[in-house]
Write a structure and sequence with these properties.
The protein is mainly β. The protein starts with 27 loop residues before the first strand and ends with a strand. It has a domain at 45-63 and 160-401: 6 Propeller (Neuraminidase), CATH 2.120.10. It has a 5-stranded antiparallel beta sheet with strand order 1-2-29-28-27, with no helix packed on it. A 4-stranded antiparallel beta sheet has the order 3-4-5-6, with no helix packed on it. It has strands spanning 28-33, 45-48, 56-64, 67-73, 78-83, 88-90, 106-112, 116-122, 134-139, 142-147, 159-168, 171-178, 185-190, 195-197, 209-216, 220-228, 235-242, 247-249, 259-268, 271-279, 284-291, 296-298, 309-315, 322-328, 334-339, 344-347, 357-368, 371-382, 390-401. A hairpin with a 2-residue loop joins β3 and β4 (67-73). The radius of gyration is 20 Å and the shape is globular.
């Protein structure tokens, strides 16, 4: 099993590899269609939004059909965008970038409500004296940089936040890990005034890591990741749940010799999904588990490439429906997959494109089965005079809907 890393895709810059859509300079509709929405005549189709050059859209958070937030990585700094139901616009004031950090500034996972929310940011190694990270807070139309709380063991190493979940203006949760072999999984809570580290079962488990967190209305807060088996040295999937009072371990099906969880989503307390990998380092298999309110079931996962693959992002719009972003281990090819309750289908939001275009998918979210967004980067390979091809990145924003853009 590969050595654990920061949760996959959250911090990866768009120029890191080839793999996503050829976004056009004007909006275009893909030939790929989704199944008709049950009970309606709707047959949603994919539309590619306008795409100026950028490093890629690393996060999408859907509040409603006409209120969608995007975090876009720029060559220097970042930009927050919003879909208002008609067009894509800059989301008012932008995240402040500290002096002398613009070329190293990265934006990651975000979580928003109607009045505001949070984005993770990285200053590439710039930590507070206690090793804490930094988050950007949107409140009242204004962004501010906020220091995360000190970890449970700052002497071990800096803390890394991987995901954040906004409950309301006075409560949010962030998860990650404490760096170093003795570091454990990290959970922090925003109480309306400051971030503080909270105790939980995996806080002092060596090499434990939390990759994803989700606040589920009526179902508490869930977090997924992995931990090291001290007897075998292998990594095992891990899920924690906060019931409103305390965090506790959640028993999972046996994944086999090894496994890790990278993604988590839920449409409700009786429809929770977690995903990642299981199997050997040389040929990992996608792992997908489902909670129906009573028990866990190991579900059929999308077929990987010839040398394995993983699931790194999920969106659960309704019971019996699931969207997954996957990555083939050997080729680095990214896929968008849809589960209709019976089988997996590969979906190409970008439609068919020339081989010179590659696509990297970062995030997927929506407000329901017929309103889904996928973000990432499209890379076009062009000849150059420097001895190897040059990648020209453009942001990728794809929208599945029944209406015209």
């Amino acid at each position: 099993m590969r050595t654990p890393r920061s949760p996959r895709m959250r911090w990866r810059r768009a120029t890191a590899a080839a793999g996503l859509t050829a976004l056009l300079s004007t909006a275009a509709t893909s030939a790929t269609q989704a199944p008709a929405t049950a009970g309606t005549d709707c047959v949603p189709t994919w539309t590619m939004l306008d795409a100026p050059a950028s490093e890629g859209v690393v996060d999408v958070d859907v509040i409603s059909r006409d209120n969608v937030r995007f975090s876009e990585q720029l060559e220097e700094g970042a930009r927050s965008l919003r879909w208002n139901g008609r067009s894509l616009v800059e989301n008012g004031p932008q995240i402040p970038v500290p002096p002398r950090t613009a070329s190293r500034f990265q934006v990651g996972a975000g979580s928003f409500g109607v009045t505001g929310g949070w984005s993770l940011v990285s200053l590439h190694g710039a930590f507070q004296p206690d090793g804490a990270g930094v988050l950007a807070r949107l409140d009242g139309g204004r962004w501010t940089l906020t220091t995360a709380g000190a970890s449970q063991s700052p002497e071990t190493g800096p803390s890394w936040l991987a995901d954040v979940a906004t409950v309301d203006s006075s409560q949010a949760w962030a998860v990650g890990r404490v760096e170093g072999p003795a570091g454990g999984a990290l959970i922090q809570r925003w109480d309306g005034t400051e971030w503080t580290t909270v105790d939980h079962p995996a806080a002092r488990r060596a090499s434990a890591n939390l990759s994803s967190v989700k606040a589920v209305p009526g179902g508490g807060v869930w977090a997924a990741g992995f931990q090291k088996n001290e007897q075998t040295g292998s990594y095992q999937p891990m899920v924690l749940r906060h019931d409103g009072t305390a965090w506790a371990d959640v028993a999972l099906p046996d994944p086999g010799a090894e496994g890790m969880l990278y993604a988590l989503d839920a449409s409700g307390p009786d429809d929770v999904w977690v995903a990642g990998i299981s199997g050997s380092q040389s040929s990992p298999r996608p792992l997908l588990l489902h909670w129906d309110g009573r028990s866990w079931t190991t579900m059929p996962a999308p077929e990987p490439g010839p040398y394995g693959g993983d699931i790194f992002k999920l969106y659960a719009p309704a019971p019996g429906q699931l969207w997954a972003l996957t990555n083939d281990t050997s080729t680095g090819v990214f896929h968008v997959r849809h589960w209709d309750g019976a089988a997996w289908q590969e979906v190409k939001p970008q439609g068919e494109q020339p081989e010179a275009f590659g696509f990297i998918f970062y995030d997927v979210d929506g407000s329901g089965p017929d309103d889904v967004w996928v973000t990432g980067t499209s890379n076009r390979t062009v000849p150059s005079d420097i001895g190897y091809p040059q990648l020209l990145p453009r942001r990728l924003i794809a929208h599945l809907s029944c209406g015209s853009e």
